Amino acid sequence: MRQHQFLYCMLIFILIICVFSCEKKPIERVIPDTPTIIDPPIARAGQDREIRLPQDSVWLDAGSSFALQGHSIYEWKKKSGPLSFKIIQVDSTKIIVDSLTEGVYVFGLKVIDLKLRESDDSIKVTVLPPESPDSNVCASRPVSIISGTANLEIIGTLRRVGFMELD
To answer: pTM of the entire structure?
Structure first.
């Protein structure tokens, strides 16, 4: 009889432990500045870029994008801009955009996680014309000097001309 009472007590004790342990909710850990596991991916295409011809290529890096649902797919596409361009895939997050011409391009980044959730971002690439070879030099103009010498001095974009009279 004592054995049966002991077994009943043990059975009730085990049931109580199971009931209380099953009612506990899972603990969610929140790390600042990062999404929880249920969040969709976050696409970050980077800061807008500006280049000057003759440089006609630029690196774009989505390395600060992330998704916590395992591996992600990164897709780069041109959204707008001049017709001339070529995308070269370096790795899953990095590309080189080559053969750019003067103008403003907008490239879109799409990050897709394993649950097919998406996030988009874009980056603007401005391609400036080449600097003029005359930008820091005075334009060539005929100068007539009757008697004396001329001295031309260029300081940045400020131009100074000095004359000295000969005896």
So the answer is: 0.58
